[in-house]
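Tutorial handout. Part one gives the primary structure; part two gives the three-dimensional structure as tokens.
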Amino acid sequence: MIRLRQIALVAADLSAATEEISRALDVDVVYRDPGVEFFGLHNVLFCIGDQFLEIVSPLREGTTAGRLLEKLGDDGGYMALYEVDDLDERMNLMTDKGVRRVWEGGTPDIQGRHLHPRDTGGTLVSLDQPTVSGEWAWGGPTWRTHRTSSVASSIRSFTVTVPDAKAAESKWNELGINCAVEFNEDPLRPEGLSGVTLDCVDPSRDGETMTLVGITFTLKVA
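Part two.
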């Protein structure tokens, strides 16, 4: 099993980005994870259905997130996180395919592995296995009590901008991670996570787009 559970964005100003997302998507912050300070970051998480939208922001110089902000010249997409139920087997495949890990770790409730974006192509990807299927420790202890958004009911997919869409799709297929992702071919734009499609609550908003935290959000009828 593999399922999209979380999308992470990166912003220079966490407070401003938090307000932007909260207002546009009618979502509340459900958690601020102190654990991301290990990466030199602070963050917020929002819950959409049982999936998550995260914003990270650098606390110091020399972070991966900070370098990405410099590369993009703006806020933007950072990472896609998948829930899996066969993490060890999938990581054996990654090793066989020459995919490096940029981080591995977790808690008694969940284990995660970040895959090197140069080896997958497009964006940073995390494979995560909760001890109990469907739980998500990265979202904090109280996420199941979150207020329901009036705008979006779930995260349908994300878009990755790449120089060669067919090659990227083939690579993600080979690695078994071609799930809830679309590829936008544009050799003139920086490679990375560039869009998110949400299942909308109000059918009259079908097809509506908005730019939030540097990426395009699209509303679609479920």
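Part three, for discussion. The mean pLDDT is 97. The two ends are 21 Å apart (CA to CA).
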